[in-house]
Amino acid sequence: MSDPVPDPEASAQSPVTKPQIPLTFLLVTGNRWTLSFDPEETIGRVKEIVWNEWPADWSAEQPPSHSFLRILYLGKILQDNATVASQFPSSPASTSAAPTSSDALATPGAAQPTIVHLSVRPFAPGPEDDIAKSKVRRRGAGGASGTSEEDGSRAGGCCGCVIC
């Protein structure tokens, strides 16, 4: 005789497919790229995924790490700890009774991608030594000659003027 009770291990092996939220990333250069994410993913994790899967033909635009990426939606920079589901609509445009022309072109039941801007923060300046060297070069270019002690005493100025 067979047991009519379903096996709990068998039901655990068949995962329930969660709806993915498609995002189209738009760079300042005009390049677009669409990826889909789980609703529970954090924005910080999305940045990591985007950086790790960066297209090879965009290598000139890739920052040194994912921390240089900013995702903007509706004019706001999204925080790393927010989830994808809390920031973006997850349901397809099936709430309207009459489909629009753009809905007619889309596949039935598929969510339209949400367009977000992907901003790459400027890279950090080099070590502090490089900044100090550039300041010394600027002081020397002004034509003022003096000893290193004088340079230290008038660190804010570049021309060596004395006002009494």
From TrEMBL:
* Pfam families in alphabetical order: Rad60-SLD_2
Which parts of this chain are annotated as the region Disordered?
86-156
The signal peptide here is none
Q: InterPro entries, per this entry?
A: Ubiquitin-like_dom, Ubiquitin-like_domsf, UBL3-like, UBL3-like_ubiquitin_dom
Q: Which SUPFAM superfamilies match?
A: Ubiquitin-like (SSF54236)
Question: Could you tell me which residue ranges the Ubiquitin-like domain spans?
Answer: 21-86
* Compositional bias of kind Low complexity: 86-108
Name of the featured protein: Ubiquitin-like domain-containing protein
Instruction: Give the species.
Output: Botryobasidium botryosum (strain FD-172 SS1)
